[in-house]
Write a structure and sequence with these properties.
Largest sheet: 10 strands, mixed
Number of helices: 11
Distance between the termini: 21 Å
Order of helices and strands: EEHEHEHEEEHHHEHEHEHHHEE
Helix content: 25-40%
Structural class: alpha+beta
CATH superfamily of one domain: Thiolase/Chalcone synthase
CATH architecture of one domain: 3-Layer(aba) Sandwich
Radius of gyration: 20 Å
Number of strands: 12
Shape: globular
Length: about 400
């Protein structure tokens, strides 16, 4: 069976909600990352067998199969097909998992994966009435984040807000506000240091027409003390604030996958092998815990354990759920998100999986780690994880 490899990864800077990318369509955001990968590797675009992109919203300008639209806007030949996958926050990691399976089964040699989200431009939707000309008022519903147009058959405890879900996890696992704020401040500090050290220079590409070269949400002056002054966002007596949760964001990511036989056509050696994949589901309101078992499954399929792992990229949806995952895995927190995480960098839902996968591959190569794990929690009670192997480190 052919093996699937990560050959390159590029993303846009991640913009703040209502920030630098407020006037940029999501299909244009996605096209910028796809185009950058093709130009940097020098691969003949006609050699790309498939484009697979993740997107969590699909209700706005990205509604008509954004993978196909972005491929066309990026200048790929019309013969290159594209498909969009939606596993909410895990969409672009799911896209990479899908692409890797295509390569392993022999259905493709080169797959361009990634994802995109414009949370700023996510539209309001108006439910269609059962009858024409209803007399009552109708409410517009925001599609930016979380539950909307909820089926009344869903149990109420499942459909609480994402923040309340994680406050409930905090109640169960006893993670203090102080730990959450310390974790968030660390994320900003490490992200700022990584940018200053040039780590992200070759991984982030600017978007034409937008004056943004770094992730827009990083606050290098954040400290546990300053974050402690923020008010809780979901409960009056709660611990989750705007400072220890990931911000609403806009951005795109692209990850080029291929078989070993495709290396000459891609024009470079692979960065890492996709060695294991895992998906797991829990009760919808316990979604923050779902990466725990997803990672365990991926590690088992790779034939290794946590003691073998040198680097971890865990998407920081909330500091509290990230800390719960680390505590349960019993791993060294210093190996996790060493270049900052989503609390600082941002979390454009459909793009974050591609970001953590590309960052993981780069960290492993730079620091000589053989094994690494990328994991992400997903709304409605799911988690995904991928194990990478750096074969150069054997």
């Amino acid at each position: 069976m052919p093996q699937a490899y990560v050959f390159d990864a590029i993303r846009s800077p991640f913009g703040r909600f209502g920030g630098a990318f407020a006037q940029t369509r999501p299909d244009d955001l996605a096209a910028a990352s796809l185009r950058a990968v093709v130009e940097r590797t020098g691969i003949d675009p006609a050699e790309i067998d498939e484009v697979v992109l993740g997107n969590a919203n699909g209700a706005g300008e990205e509604n008509r199969n954004v993978a196909r639209m972005a491929g066309l806007l990026a200048g790929l030949p019309v013969s290159v097909p594209g498909t969009t996958v939606n596993r909410l926050c895990g969409s672009s990691l799911d896209a990479a998992m899908t692409g890797s399976r295509m390569i392993e089964t022999g259905d493709a040699d080169v797959v361009l994966t990634g994802g995109v989200e414009s949370m700023t431009r996510a539209p309001w939707v108006l439910p269609k009435p059962a009858r024409a000309f209803p007399a009552a008022n109708t409410e517009l519903v925001s599609t930016t984040l979380g539950w909307r147009l909820v089926n009344p058959s869903m149990p109420k405890e499942w459909t609480v807000s994402l923040g309340e879900s994680n406050e409930q996890l905090r109640d169960i696992y006893g993670v203090s506000r102080e730990r959450q704020d310390e974790f968030a401040a660390r994320s900003h500090r490490l992200a700022h240091a990584a940018w200053d050290a040039g780590f992200y220079d070759d991984m982030v590409v600017s978007v034409p027409g937008v004056d943004l070269v770094r992730d827009e949400a990083i606050r290098p002056d954040s400290t546990p003390q300053t974050l402690a002054g923020l008010k809780p966002s979901f409960r009056t007596d709660g611990t989750i604030t705007a400072g220890n949760a990931s911000p609403l964001s806009d951005g795109s990511s692209a990850v080029l996958l291929g078989s070993a036989a495709a290396a000459n056509r891609i024009g470079r050696d692979p960065l890492a092998r996709i060695a294991g994949r895992g998906a797991h589901a829990v009760e919808p309101h316990r979604f923050g815990y779902a990466p725990v078992e997803a990672a365990r499954k991926a590690l088992a399929r790779a034939g290794i354990g946590w003691s073998d792992v040198g680097a971890v990229e865990l998407n920081e949806a909330f500091a509290v759920q990230s800390l719960i995952c680390l505590d349960t895995w019993r791993i060294d927190p210093d190996i996790v998100n060493a270049k900052g995480g989503a609390i600082a960098l941002g979390h454009p839902l459909g793009a974050s999986g591609g970001r953590i996968l590309g960052t993981l591959a780069a960290v492993m190569r730079a620091e000589g780690h053989r094994w690494g794990v990328a994991a992400i929690c997903i709304g409605v009670g799911q988690g995904l994880a991928v194990v990478l192997e750096n074969e150069e480190a054997q």
